[in-house]
Design brief:
This protein has about 130 residues and is mainly alpha-helical. Helices cover about 85% and strands about 0% of the residues. It is built from 5 helices and no strands.
Length: about 130
């Protein structure tokens, strides 16, 4: 596989990850679809890439005052614990099942984001019409 293609995948995943939108939601499909990487391997590469991405993005967001510290521990502790369970499950599940599950997750996320955008646009339209 071409170095340039992997570089492009890393670039796009890093941009989205840096914005806090989850680089993996883009990186995993790019690796599996464009680069032909197995789903399990793509998820592993994503986790490895996430470490430096998240540390850099977190430091920038903290520096800019965009991170509220209250409530972090109750969020991070269960997430860290259940990430172990998720990793163990991913290591034994068939790649096709992981791929379908990830596709369903992305579909649900897309529907949720689209619905939220439509509600926001409708509310703005109502405000303009009333005012």
């Amino acid at each position: 596989m071409s170095f340039h293609l992997y570089f492009l995948c890393g670039l796009l995943g890093g941009i989205f990850g840096g914005m806090g939108m989850g680089g993996g939601t883009l990186l995993i499909p790019l690796l599996t679809v464009l680069c032909g990487v197995d789903q399990t391997a793509a998820q592993g590469v994503n986790l490895l890439a996430f470490l430096p991405m998240s540390l850099i993005a977190l430091s920038v967001h903290v520096k800019n005052g965009l991170v509220r510290r209250e409530g972090v521990l109750p969020l991070v502790l269960p997430a860290a614990c259940f990430s172990v369970l998720g990793a163990l499950a991913a290591s034994v599940l068939p790649p096709q099942l992981l791929r379908k599950g990830f596709g369903l997750f992305l579909t649900g996320l897309s529907v949720s984001q689209f619905s939220g955008a439509v509600r926001t646009l409708r509310a703005e339209h109502r405000k303009k019409a009333a005012g």
